[in-house]
Structures are given as C-alpha cells and as structure tokens.
Amino acid sequence: MTAMKAASLAAREDDTVEKTINGGTPWYNTTPKVRGGRRGLFLITSGPAMQVKTEFEEVLAMVESDLFDFVIGFGGSSTLPGFVGSTVLAFIRAAAVFGCTDVWKSLCDLLVTNPDVMEHTTVIAVYACYVDGKRTVESREVAKHSTHRALGHKFSICGNKGCNSSMADTISVSVVENMVQLTCGQCQWHSAWLPANQDNDHFLLVKPTITPLLFWHNFPRSPRLHKLFVDTVSGDNAQEGSRKKHTLHTNISLAHPAKLRRLSGTVERRSSEAIGRIEHGL
To answer: What is the 3-state secondary structure of 31-87?
Structure first.
C-alpha cells in the first residue's frame, strides 16, 4: 500500500506533455498524470461495510487519510457479483481509456449509460476532491426512483406518532405521473404528494435530461432526509408548505451541489396544478 501511494503521488506530479508528429494534441493521453494517480477500492459484496455505522467510519477513514482516493460500494446487504460486476469493469475500462480525474462525474456518466445495476442495489461513493485547492471528502449514494423506493430511498417513518410502521415495514409508495406519495398500511396515513422529477433539499437528480429516475443524496442519510414526507405539509397548502420546509430546486451542478436555484414560476404553477388534480381525484 505504501508503494502504491508513492507511485500514485509521483504520477500526479508528472508534467509530461504529449504531442503528435505534427505538433498537435493526441486523442489518447498516455501521460502518467492522466493514466495513473488514482487509488480506488471497490467493495462488491460488503454491504455491511457501507450500512453499519462503525464499519462505514472505517471506509471513510481510508479516504480521509489519503490511503485511497475513492471507495465505491453497494447498498445491498448481500450484493451478488453478477449484478454489479459489469458496472465495476466498465468503470475500470473507462478510467483506463479516458482517465479518472473526476471520480464523481465519471461514476455518474457510467450509471446514466448503464442503469441496469440500479435495479438491484444502490451505489455509494466516498471520494476525495479539491475545492479551492483544499482536499475534501464527499460521500454520496445514488439510487433509482421506483414503486419500491420513493426518490430512490426506502422510507419507513409514518406521520402518525403512535404508529410503529418502521418495525412492521408497512410504508408503501404510490406513483401518479411525476408525483409520489407514501401510505402507511398500518394506520392508513397518507403523506403529501411530492414531485418525483425535480430536485429538493435532500434528493438531487443525477442527470434529469437523460435519466430522470436517478437521484443522489448525501451519505450517511440525515434524520431530516428520513422525515422528508412527514415534514411536508399535506392538504390544500401542500405545495406552499413544501416550499417553506423543503424548497424545491432545479439545474443542480454535479460538481457544486451547493449552488441551488429556485424553481421558476412556471414550474411551481405546474406542480401546484398537478397536486390539485391528484387530490381532487382528476
């Protein structure tokens, strides 16, 4: 591991510039800085390493201590290699051919063009990046929105305080057009309808124009993320309450998720009209 780290750092500091025989820039960059310099770890079947807090702290420490530049794992408690192996190999091939200077962008580009793996599991990436010249570590999970996972997450908290739905696993997902609602099968609680094709405070679309069902969120998940549907006001003022507690955003940058923009009046009006049609049974 020490030798790998030394070779990686040497590759990053290489300043070789390749030119063609005519003095142009070649389409294939073989310099050490592009070809090497990234140390990665893939956890194929170690779901607990990502889902158990004490285990995940060890994974996070490997990136924070600069032992690895990134660690990519999967959210399933027991992920079959056959389901994720092709995705891992595709990432390695893409990194070998095109380089991997931006781990997050490379991963997103791969998942939007090879989304089949998201049918079986979620993808968790812990990676180092540089912001204003300072090394920082990000941890994110990518998941697919479906009738089993609202916005890519399996919610288990009911809006009624006395209900123990989290123990009975009775929360179901209803999807109508581009709206999603949670229902508790134990006490029949219904959440407000939320847009499933827009960003919100916790769930951000990976690439909305290409794969509108793929969302990412910070990992580990915050307590507020688990209560997104519970904290959103239902009824006639659902959209207004949603804007107050969970402001919706659009056009999120992959590299800078903090730069959020407010929805335009047109999008807000359409969301309100959609909620009105759903709640009146139209």
So the answer is: CHHHHCCCCEEEECCCHHHHHCHHHHHHHHHHHHCCCCCEEEEECCCCCCHHHHHHH
Strand duo 40-43 + 70-74: pairing:
parallel
- Predicted TM-score of the model (pTM): 0.71
- The per-type count for the chain, helices as H runs and strands as E runs, is 11, 11
Which of 108, 230, 211 lies closest to 166, judged by CA? 230
Distance CA 282, CA 172 (A): 22
Residues 208, 213, 216, 221, CA torsion sign: positive
For residue 66, the model assigns a pLDDT of: 84
Considering the chain, what percentage of its residues have pLDDT values greater than 90?
Answer: 24
- In the predicted model, what is the mean pLDDT of residues 26-35? 71
CA–CA distance, 157 with 109 (Å, rounded to integer):
33
Q: Give the tokens for residue 79.
A: 């992920």
Q: What is the rounded distance in angstroms from the CA atom of residue 131 to the CA atom of residue 209?
A: 27
Confidence of residue 161 (pLDDT cuts 50, 70, 90): confident
